[in-house]
Amino acid sequence: MSLAHTAAEYMLSDALLPDRRGPRLKGLRLELPLDRIVKFVSVGSPLLLMSLAFAQEFSSGSPISCFSPSNFSIRQAAYVDSSCWDSLVHHEQDGPRQDKMKSLWPHKALPYSLLALALLMYLPVLLWQYAAVPALSSDLLFIISELDKSYNRSIRLVQHMLKIRQKSSDPYVFWDELEKARKERYFEFPLLERYLACKQRSHSLVATYLLRNSLLLLFTSTTYLYLGHFHLDVFFQEEFSCSIKTGLLSDETHVPNLITCRLTSLSIFRIVSLSSVAVYTILVPVIIYNLTRLCRWDKRLLSVYEMLPAFDLLSRKMLGCPINDLNVILLFLRANISELISFSWLSVLCVLKDTTTQKHNIDTVVDFMTLLAGLEPSKPKHLTNPACDEHP
């Protein structure tokens, strides 16, 4: 008998989680995986395209090539290129004496507009970092620590029950005390459950998360409007007519009224425009999916931790509308599942509980570990009515 108890003690000792001391949870993820992807793509792609635009400008020299008159010298032709690039206005005859002008400034502003877009897309990230991350990190540290501690308390409780059963000479006294403890709910540690219930009535984290994704959608829509209104207007125009007859050259008869110029950087302009549309079109469904995840509970994670005493948010039907801070915390607990050491143990116990033949006697990890340790999870039938055993 002592050998069986020694084996049970070893099994329970191995089931205890290591105590975490020193640096606490260095690898805590404070951004969801999809949010991190959205951040890198939405901010990184404009910076990448901006570097492409600058690289093309530095490698090929002038972004335009003007067809100067043949009597112009090299310096005069260079002046024409410089002047037409500075003005970047297309002159078009709209009548006998009317000159219609069209600005091509999006070509000149391309790298700077991409930089502004990257900064704009980074604003929701800054909002999340400063408005939500401090509170979220403290919540996750406390909840992860308490979940693991609750599991360890359950294992230590079974160890204590095993020692009491060894020392107790009268099994009736032991089972009476055990049933009294269950009736008085001594095995339950309701601090964590009450804390999570309070988080259902809090909405600061979820409001910040909704604002972050809403701003991303708003800035993406603004990008579409900018590209559609300004880039599309000059997207197919490869050549333009430039006028340099200004200032001292306005009265020069040998200078033509209009000089034709070609945009040598048009291919880069088109690549940047199409790439921006494609990237943000792909990101929109991802952002919408992030928002829809707030409309449902992660019940699998909750069902696993239902094995802990006093953690019955599901069985008591305490979950209401999912748009609250608790749902956001559950999403981040799922993202930090590697930090929850107790999750793997409880997942295994849940699978074993579903396959055991005594499902009606097993509700928590205390009941299951009691059974594994060699104790009945409830009073044996031959001890339920000792008077009947003495007087059959």
TrEMBL record:
InterPro entries reported for this sequence: Innexin, Pannexin
Keyword check for Endoplasmic reticulum: yes
Subcellular location: Cell membrane; Endoplasmic reticulum membrane
Keyword annotations: Cell membrane, Endoplasmic reticulum, Glycoprotein, Ion channel, Ion transport, Membrane, Transmembrane, Transmembrane helix, Transport
Membrane topology classification: Multi-pass membrane protein
Coarse class of the protein's main subcellular location: membrane
One matching Pfam family: Innexin
GO biological process: cell-cell signaling; osteoblast differentiation; positive regulation of interleukin-1 production
Membrane-crossing segments per the record: 109-128, 268-291
Any one GO molecular function term: calcium channel activity
Sequence similarity: Belongs to the pannexin family.
Role according to the record: Structural component of the gap junctions and the hemichannels.
Protein name: Pannexin
